[in-house]
Amino acid sequence: PAGVKAEPPEPGLIDLGAQSGRWAAFQEKHGLSCEETARLLLDAYEYGRLVKHTGGCHCGAVRFEVWASADLHVFNCNCSICTKKQNRHFIVPASRFKLLKGADNLTTYTFNTHRAQHTFCKTCGVQSFYTPRSNPDGYGIAPHCLDDGTVQTIITEDINGKEWEKAISEHKTIRNMSKP
Questions:
Q1: For 140-151, what is each residue's pLDDT tens digit?
Q2: Nearest in space to 106 (alpha carbons), one of 128, 121, 125, 126
Q3: 103 by DSSP, 3-state: which?
Q4: Which of 64, 67, 68 is nearest to 153 (CA)?
Q5: In what order do the strands lie in the sheet with 71-77?
Q6: pLDDT given for residue 44 in this prediction
Q7: 3-state DSSP assignment of residue 16
Q8: pLDDT per residue over 148-167, tens digit each?
Q9: Rounded to whole angstroms, how far apart are CA atoms 174 and 33?
Q10: How many CB atoms neighbour CB 89 within 10 A?
């Protein structure tokens, strides 16, 4: 009203004005907290166009969503486990990944340093995502477990996992791929 001075928002709060309805609808539609929404939108602005991919295991017991580019940078590792599983994956920060269902249907396999958490469905055995040793603060997502329609291109980069320490120390960007 005229003559009434508006109080500034509380510290840490942002006055969204006319956009508050859009903000709330976006949060509700995607099931995100205020902080998750802000992080996602800042990431989208800072890192380019992100899209929501959905995916899961073969039997459907495990489902997830991940915000990433439509143009994926996929790693093809030749370490012992990636070779046996034919594990190809792209890496995202944990803030861009959300498990939608199936937490109780996941089991984990570790070996060697036990830093990588190889999660897979107890029912069908498919690993649709995991926590990579190179990026324990993020997720490695199997692009072949994504639903159709959101991936435009895939660029594959070979990683010499047989000499893991050397390969990771020489790679210029892999450790930063899980940083928001």
A1: 999 999 999 999
A2: 121
A3: helix
A4: 68
A5: 129-130, 138-141, 88-93, 71-77, 153-159
A6: 65
A7: coil
A8: 999 999 999 998 888 888 88
A9: 28
A10: 23
Residue 166, SS3 per DSSP: helix
Q: Which residues contact 147 (CB under 8 A, 6 or more apart)?
A: 53, 54, 55, 56
| pLDDT confidence band for 134 (50 / 70 / 90) | confident
Residues 6+ apart with CB under 8 A from 124: 57, 58, 59, 61
What domains does the chain contain, in order, with CATH numbers?
16-48 (no CATH), 50-176 (2.170.150.70)
63-104 pLDDT per residue, tens: 999 999 999 999 999 989 889 988 899 999 998 999 999 999
C-alpha span between 78 and 73 (Å, rounded): 16
Structure tokens at 59: 């039997």
Question: Which residue in the block uniquely carries the two structure tokens 């070779």?
Answer: 83
| Amino acid letter, residue 32 | L
Closest CA to 132 of 170, 168, 99: 168
| Spatial distance between the Cα atoms of 161 and 86, rounded to a whole number of angstroms | 13
